[in-house]
Amino acid sequence: MEKIILPEHSIFEVVAEAAAELGVEAYVIGGFVRDLVLKRPSKDIDVVCVGDGIALATAVALKLPHRPKVSIFKNFGTAMLRDRDWEVEFVGARKESYREHSRKPEVEIGTLDDDLKRRDFTINALGISLNKENYGELIDEFGGIKDMKRQIIRTPLAPGITFSDDPLRMMRAIRFASQLGFDIDPDTFDAIMDYKDRIKIVSGERIIDELNKIILSPKPSYGFKLLFASGLLHLIFPKMVELQGVETINGNSHKDNFYHTLQVLDNVAEVSDDLWLRWSAIMHDIAKPDTKRYHPKAGWTFHGHEDRGARMVPKLFRDLKLPLNEHMKFVQKLVRLHLRPIALVKETVTDSAIRRLLFEAGDDIDALMKLCRADITSKNDTKVKRYLQNFDKVEKRLVEVEESDKLRNFQPVITGEIIMETFNLMPSKTVGELKELLTEAILEGKVRNEFKDAYAFLLKEGERKGLQVAKLITIDEEGV
Asked: Mean pLDDT over all residues of the chain?
């Protein structure tokens, strides 16, 4: 049998020693073995014990110099400890059976063979012995090494059984294919299409966890194409599926916004690992199907799709079980603003337009520019190159205006409190109007955001509104 070289003087030797003293067999199983063979970094170790996994974990902890805490999960029969950078989970070998309408298995004590059979894919059904008589020996009962060499995702048992038992494995198959750049075995993929409706019994939280991992893969479009071809995407994210397709009227066609979105997503993935920037790419044109119109002279239009899309983001996040927090607001902002820099490219870049973009984008301006660059997709390389060169000019002006006016996340130096004190006003519409006039004047470059200029502008606008000055505010070195 093939042997695998495990790191010397490591947690594995401690586990082997503890298992020998307890008189039980122990094996490293699953993802760690897969990643070791593929030479991918991994710090998560699963140890299967043919016996009491919790007892083995406790014995290992006592042998480690720093005596780590053992977290025990009795309901699952598992235990976990941390050893430096390693996170090690222990479980007794088991076999599982499933009921038709649940993905929660009935678990029984089993053999190593039983434990390997319940694994999702052959590349994860690998083991390495930690036993004295065959330490380091590779256990590969289902051809996982061969499948890794062939770059194939395949189930150890008949795929219909694997996916019917645990439908989340259909998402995991596509996730591993996307992360590793592997193909899915034809019989395995056929089973995904056949059993796709079983995904409905899986919680949204588990589904979005797998979808996020697909989105974070090196070329996420591959995973989405598999989700689309299998029919899973139609069930978990139907709004994205609506982007697919081309309509032609009088010889005029619009582009396929589904495949355009995937290209934008891949473009973003080349420059950023930020999950939420990648979600912004997915959502940026999400409202195009709802705003699509055909005009005999103008052709196809999608007027207002950025604003409609921004309004759709909270519901989409809620439906997908994504967090309704600052990440949602970030995506919403980028969807709403994603056309603004492109509009600047098409016209003479004015300082006023640059100021407004800086003001609205704030600290997210750099992320917005990455999205907008990614959004330039065309088969005409000359056109793409020209647009990107124009973006260079816009970004240069952004830097210049930001250095000059400091408008990123700016607040007018004249606050609502100063306005009320100056004119002896209570909180009211008038106060808001004056503050808005001042903000507009600063963005238009008519007034600098400095107290003297801004306050003089306020007094002039107050006079126009017939307001009486109740108190003149002065500024000294310490402020107002």
From this structure: 89
